[in-house]
## 1
Amino acid sequence: MKPTRLFILNGGSLAIDGYKVYWNRGPGGDIRFPVYSVLIDHEEGLFIYDTGFDLPHMQTYIPGDQPLQTPEQALPAQIAKAGFRPEDVTHVLSSHFHIDHCGGHEYFPQAVVVSHVNEYAHAMKPPLFERMSYSDLSFDPALECARDGLPPSATTYDRSPRYLLVRGDVEIASGVTLIETLGHSAGHYSLLVELAGQAPILFTGDAAMTPRNLEMMVIGSFHLDPIKATESLLRLKTVQAEHGAELFFSHSMPEFQTWKKAPEWY
């Protein structure tokens, strides 16, 4: 049996105010945070969890988030560091469709996009305050047309990816489980990966951006439902305890700097 390998792909960084990371708690001032993808080389396929941001999109529409990404940090280059090509990826596992988590989905037209059914539906018609968060849906022309209230062209659906829409906790492959953690978005997923010879890794996604979110039980100010988001913080603690998992947070630079990055793996 082929052992599972897990690669952390460094996709660059963004910066936002501390009050956006810690809702009503702060402190204020810019916090620079990492943006990364998780590549899982598994016997049942090659899976990627989240795909970071698209640099030209960020520079054009949201320059205030101060995007930094070198050519080496572009997603195809990071995948090459792990010894693969974008066309090798069989499944794209989406935590959610915010701009810093789906900006590279377009590199994988051959892959099945796994998404929470609620996230897919919400991305079609996000409320006004979330429009910018869902501004980069270029990987799916049909979804983009629905968001903008435009009729799809005759070829739109031909260029849209194949989806596996799910809800609840779902084991996508042996030892690779999407954990439902709603609230930050309509259909947010964290990810639990079991590895031989070490504790499982629980990728929190934006359900908890940093350890401090869990320590203070405070969600980020970017959220759809604060009650569900707070419940998801508790869910992360429960899943961690049940599996003895190590937590990998989505946007915490101090921890990120200590992790192995491709070409190294877990």
## 2
Amino acid sequence: MPISVVINTYNAEKHLAKVLDAVKDFDEIVVCDMESTDDTIGIAKQYGCKIATFPKGNITIVEPARNFAIQQASNEWVLVVDADEIITPELRQYLYDIIKSPDCPTGIFISRLNMFLGRYSSKKSSNDYQLRFMKRDKVDWPHTIHSVPRIDGPVDKAPSKYKMLHLADETIYQIVNKANIYSDNEVVKKMHKNYGCWALFYRPLWRFFRTYIIKGEILRGKRGLIRAYMDANYQVYVVSKIIEKKLRSQDERK
């Protein structure tokens, strides 16, 4: 059975050639571009990709373009890849093998190995499972940040030895800027939460403990400690912004 690779892009020239080279042996590559101003389209054309355009407008996240991108694929099975992720030959072979099975799930989570401050994180820490392989007509991707696609059918995880390699190696400055943007979008998704002072304490603390101890970042020295602090700070941003928005709304009603 053929598989289409779907890649959403916006100014993605930095890693795109490596990403496309890693998926060139799939049956189809669809690049859904959000009006890039760099050489993203030029690189995609060099690799013979099918190109679709999704108007960017004021959108700052990729999720609103996911469903449109997936529907541009010609094949039943779709692998969604970010423009800074490498698909290994072993993962490719696993996907082609699994879809031959009569009990193949409709969606498959794939483990992603992430980079932080110039090095890949520990394998335990990087069991960052992403739902990226699915049947094209069985998926609905919510338009909120970090949303998990809804799959009409059974979902399973690929063995953790089959990983995507995440090439993004952001500076602390970039991480903080992105956390500010992402947390703004996450407020929309979580405004129904009744967060208070207790959430400002336990959510960052739990995220720090989860990253530093449970995921094993404690074994990575300074890198691990900084990574745990960054994860904890993100929770501070989200909870604080939700509380801020509700307090301002209350003040306006007085």
## 3
Amino acid sequence: MSVHNAYLTLSGAISAEVRLDERLSRHTSYRIGGPAALYVAPRTYEALKRTLAVLSDEAVPWVILGRGSNLLVSDAGYEGCAISLAGEFSRVRVGEGATITAGAGAALSQLVSTAMKEGLSGLECCAGIPGSVGGAVSMDAGTRRQWIGRRVRDLVVLRPDGTMHRYAGSDVEWGYRSTSLPTTEIILEATFELAPSTKEAVTADMEERLRERRASQPLGAPSCGSVFRNPPDGSAGALIESCGLKGASLGAAQISSEHANFIVNRGGATAADVIGLIARAHDEVLRRHGVDLACEVKLLGFGA
């Protein structure tokens, strides 16, 4: 593996930011994480393809970073390349009828805001959810009753062989925080089929959802959102709270006193602090209730 060779090959040769030893705490909502050996932010499809080809030639592992809203990076960092989609991957454009097409690197909030301004309904369930469009689609973001996947008309992915493929939304199996999309494929953009409404009605719905989130979730502190998936017909937060863990701390990380399924960074928390609290909550819920909570936070740089 030669990260340095990859850096020399890519630096200045493609439309992208290319940096060595980029601290990933700057790119995650947790504000936690050591450096990535290499960081690349391609601005075009060709730059992304070239980046992946060079990384393959140099045997450098890579990961699509998104906006880091559901990611915990090791304190030691990541020995591979962190890729952040920028430029044309961040565009959001309104199409014919009631459609909006968004690049995978666009902020989900930008997509939601565009729908609101255009008076298009269907994405209200995503109001207040951080992250990128690509990340939201890949994990079928939303609530337990509504999710973004039901609004995907089609999406474009980049396959490992360098070819692009278009899926119809109906080709994909959408589930609670999951999809049937192969993990080896990179989402490039998605088109959403929405319903004509009014700006006033969509705005009112979104504002109500935002009020509910602010009232029940610790939105003022760095976190990655919900730590565990809710079990069928249950609440991960309620189970953790029933174990007396609401407000429990380890180092500068804390199980939120507002919502027990959030772990927040109170300032200077390490990945080890967060992992310790995740393990404590999981093990205590399993011991007391026999429920094996599934962690939905993605881990990077922790080894096998």
## 4
Amino acid sequence: MSTMTAPARETVRAADRVAAARRRVTTGETIVQTLTMAWRALKKMRRNPEQFFDVALQPILFTAMFATIFGGAIAGDVESYLPLMVPGILAQTVLTTCMATGTQLREDMEKGVFDRFKSLPISRIAPLAGPMVADLLRYTIAATLTFAMGLVMGYRPGGGAGGVLAAILLAIITGWSLAWVFTWVGTIARSAQAVQSISMMILFPLTFLSNAFVPVETLPGWLAAFVRFNPVSHLVTATRDLANSAIVTGEVAWTLLACLVVIVIFAPLSVRSYKRHM
């Protein structure tokens, strides 16, 4: 004879119904649920405009500061340095912007927001992918402001509008794929501060030890070898070729391949780690 009480049996049945409903979620429903979560994240951004401070101020400050400080020393003058630097700032800005994805995810988990999703028959990936879709707006703002500031300072991209748009699109795709890494970090870290610290330790060395701000030929041999291997350098070179010459080189293919590899590895890891909290 079962000793389970009626409330306990009802709880078990409710959990079974939720689990069964989740197993029946179709691809179309997953897309709709992801877009719903993206809309929720956009509404959250509207109510918290400070989330746009980094994407609005960082491109302007970094472009003006780096061009003024390093332009004369590296290229002889600011205008000659801009074709080298602006695509590098584009890559740096978009990649550092995607760090906020994991931090905000961890904050939501600490506040118990994701506990509300436990009883919902939704796709497991929707609460993760939704905010990342909304973050595409932040990447677009950051990338656009980077080129806008470069134009104000005298940058004239030889690739024209088409090359610039292609460079921005490539940077956004890369930022979105890399955000899966920080999403995974957000699901395993103990606090939002820990997510931010870990993300900075991962991304800042990769960004600054690249060809974003200096030619590889000016670096010591051992450092030049690392810079050439660094995936951020492939992104920077690809965006330079697109923005300055409207040329699609093999660097674009390498960058897209790296994006695919990151998504294939870290999207399942993020979902699996997230399910442990469900």
